[in-house]
Amino acid sequence: MNNSDSPNFATRAQTFIGELKRRKVFQVTSVYLVAAWGLSAGAADIFEVLGFPDWASRYFVIGLFSFTPVVIVIAWVFELNKTGIQRDRGPQTGEVRKVDQTTVLALQRPIPVLTAQWQDKTQRFTEDFIAGRDDTCGLQLVDPMISRQHAKFEYTQGQWWVRDLGSSNGIVLDGVKVEHAQLKRDSSLQFYPDGPPLQITIASSVSAETQLA
Hints:
Elements: H1 5-22, H2 25-49, H3 54-66, H4 68-77, E1 78-81, E2 84-87, E3 104-106, E4 114-118, E5 121-125, E6 129-132, E7 139-140, E8 151-156, E9 159-164, E10 171-173, E11 176-178, E12 180-182, E13 186-190, E14 198-202, E15 209-211
Parallel strand pairs: 6-7
Antiparallel strand pairs: 1-2, 3-15, 4-5, 4-14, 6-8, 8-9, 9-12, 10-11, 10-13, 13-14
Helix pairs in contact: 2-3, 2-4
């Protein structure tokens, strides 16, 4: 095996484990197994009271634990968030568009430039954009704990705002968890506990045109 494949495998494994955590597969499976163990412990007594044959409790227990792979698949495919149970389909057509980072945007209106800095990545925006893990987001944040479409940044009522898009871990703005909030001139956001901060700076003046970094 080529030594260069080892880091790639480790990265893929780390990303996969992170995705399992983000989708709460471990948490859901653990809860199911605890519940199944409790049901199986009392199955014999319950089935005896109900007059079921002896083999019924045995097959009931086998069926409970055999259903575990199905629970894992359901936890992977569906996501429980503030809006309910939803299927993780990724971005839908027309909801987001990929930003060409070499495109010069001529301003049609005086929108203050928003500069977003995350780890070693810096981008500047003069129109609404979505931040998330998916590569179609205007601001892509490659981190398995961040949702595919985590937050929308929008300029409305003469101010920049951030809005949670029903993400798994929510948004903490300057130490306060928010769903929809106005951004200050200098703001710090986190998309999950102890995650790397997204630093936001909003320019006080607007240049004639802005190029994405």
